[in-house]
Design goal:
The chain has about 260 residues and is of the alpha/beta class. Helices cover about 30% and strands about 25% of the residues. The protein is built from nine helices and 14 strands. The structure holds zinc ion (2 copies).
Length: about 260
């Protein structure tokens, strides 16, 4: 049984647990080590039991607690070499590190993880395809646009964690300075609700998608009801939709297969 728990998602920190019966991994460590442990313990889980922590990219909201997690709980950090290079000041060399190349398939315990390159303004940026037996989960946050390659790699997932960062009208009428609005809205920024809805609808029509969690919602430029409504309106068939919170972990969500 493949299962996920979003520990929290947004510009103040990201961390997502994915597990099956015998392997548990973390995607990103964007909260302090103590906060990651606190949120895991709410579900009676311990960081010591993590098989690995995958890092999507070097921005602080994805990497903040990575060093301490590795040192205190002996967790292997897995990242692209360019991410390692760009974040070298955040590590002192005593962490347990492993590298992966884009599209490399990693066997982590009984989970199979494939890295998926995404468009974002960082040294390297990664999404993931995670498989347990024939159940699969896709993870795509921090991307300005979805590529054909993203579609080809994730088209058959059962569950998708997908960025729905902003509503474009809220962004452009909102409080950000112009250069930041342009950055967020660019092809290497963050994904809008409508672009997110488009990709989710595509997978729901052509693939096996059964459920989705909208993630990395902007607190200034989005609203969870609006994000949810935008995605629902675009879908031609009903699938389960969850919205990730910044301050509260989600309940455990089982990846169901059609
Ligand atoms: Zn981020
Ligand atoms: Zn980022």
């Amino acid at each position: 049984m493949l299962e996920m728990i979003m520990l929290g998602s947004g510009s103040r920190g990201n961390a997502c647990l994915v597990k099956n019966e015998d392997t548990m991994i973390l995607i990103d460590a964007g909260f302090s080590g103590a906060e990651i442990r606190r949120r895991m313990q709410l579900e009676n889980l311990e960081p010591d039991d993590l098989e690995a922590c995958l890092i999507t990219h070097e921005h602080g909201d994805h990497i903040r607690g990575a060093s301490i997690l590795s040192k205190r709980h002996k967790v292997h950090l897995l990242m692209h070499p360019a991410t390692r290079q760009a974040s070298r000041k955040k590590f002192n060399g005593s962490e347990r590190m492993k590298h992966f190349e884009m599209k490399e398939v990693l066997e982590l315990g009984s989970l199979r993880v494939t890295s998926v390159p995404t468009l974002h303004d960082s040294a390297s940026s990664t999404g993931f395809l995670i498989e347990s037996g024939d159940a699969s989960l896709g993870y795509l946050t921090d991307l300005g646009a979805v590529t054909e390659d993203n579609f080809l790699m994730l088209r058959n997932v059962d569950f998708l964690v997908m960025e729905a960062n902003h509503d474009r009208d809220m962004l452009w009428n909102g409080p950000y300075p112009p250069h930041l609005k342009a950055r967020v809205d660019s092809r290497v920024g963050h994904l809008s609700n409508t672009d997110s809805a488009e990709f989710i609808a595509l997978l729901a029509e052509l693939g096996k998608l059964n459920g989705v969690m909208l993630a990395h919602l902007s607190e200034k430029n989005n609203d969870s009801e609006l994000a949810l409504a935008t995605v629902r309106k675009r879908l031609k068939r009903k699938i389960q939709i969850f919205v990730a919170g910044q301050d509260q972990p989600s309940k455990p969500i089982e990846v169901e297969q059609k």
